[in-house]
């Protein structure tokens, strides 16, 4: 008897929850690889080995799937920032953690970052964009800077400006590092904090991180 052909393979039966999760994972991968406009509902269905009506049943179409994928990635990254900044520490340590959170996410969840950092579709199907995500993170950093400004006698109203500048710098460097991956993320984070914490007038010649991630034995 001949081997069973690929077309004869039965489809994997899943619960509704499992199928929804599978479609989200497939959508995340395709939107990251091809972008929103270049990804078709036919391709999404084929990659998931389902019919097009199944995609419509769960998400109402490509627009709905894209919106949920983006919202999910935004929440994942925001949760990382919230956890890192909630641990407390010196202003420099908090800046280091914020920079490393984004670089860790880029390294570990590259597809998710590609989805977030791509231009939003022209149809405006999702309110979750990279710029809105960065705005959320900047508001968290603003509270930290505000307390430090009060302690040092600076104008607290300027904390919003500085938080946007700092987070924006990290976000743009993250997009650049996505394509280069060099130097390593520890070194990138050290230079980011060097500039933001010390300023151009007091740059260290060979910056390093004062805190070290758990399990990192150091150089």
TrEMBL record:
DNA-binding annotation, residue ranges on this chain: 40-59
PROSITE patterns the UniProt entry points to: HTH_TETR_1 (PS01081), HTH_TETR_2 (PS50977)
SUPFAM superfamilies recorded: Homeodomain-like, Tetracyclin repressor-like, C-terminal domain
GO terms, biological process: negative regulation of DNA-templated transcription
Protein's name in the database: Transcriptional regulator, TetR family
Record carries keyword Signal: no
MF-aspect GO terms: DNA-binding transcription factor activity; transcription cis-regulatory region binding
Keyword Transferase assigned: no
Keywords noted in UniProt: DNA-binding, Transcription, Transcription regulation
Residues annotated as domain HTH tetR-type: 17-77
Superkingdom of the organism of origin: Bacteria
Database matches in Pfam families: TetR_C_32, TetR_N
């Amino acid at each position: 008897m001949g081997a069973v052909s690929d077309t004869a393979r039965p489809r994997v039966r899943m619960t509704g929850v499992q199928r929804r999760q599978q479609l989200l994972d497939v959508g995340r991968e395709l939107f990251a690889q091809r972008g929103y406009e270049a990804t078709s509902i036919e391709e999404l269905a084929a990659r998931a080995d389902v019919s097009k009506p199944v995609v419509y049943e769960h998400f109402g179409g490509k627009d709905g799937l894209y919106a949920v994928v983006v919202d999910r990635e935004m929440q994942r990254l925001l949760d990382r920032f919230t956890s890192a900044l909630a641990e407390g520490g010196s202003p420099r340590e908090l800046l280091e953690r914020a920079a490393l959170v984004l670089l860790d996410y880029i390294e570990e969840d590259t597809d998710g970052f590609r989805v977030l950092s791509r231009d939003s579709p022209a149809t405006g199907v999702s309110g979750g964009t990279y710029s809105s995500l960065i705005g959320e993170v900047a508001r968290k950093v603003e509270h930290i800077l505000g307390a430090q400004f009060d302690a040092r006698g600076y104008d607290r109203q300027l904390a919003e400006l500085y938080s946007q500048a700092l987070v924006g710098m990290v976000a743009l460097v993250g997009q650049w590092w996505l394509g280069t991956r060099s130097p390593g993320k520890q070194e990138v984070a050290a230079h980011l904090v060097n500039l933001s914490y010390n300023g151009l007038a007091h740059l260290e010649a060979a910056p390093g991180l004062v805190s070290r991630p758990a399990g990192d034995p150091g150089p």
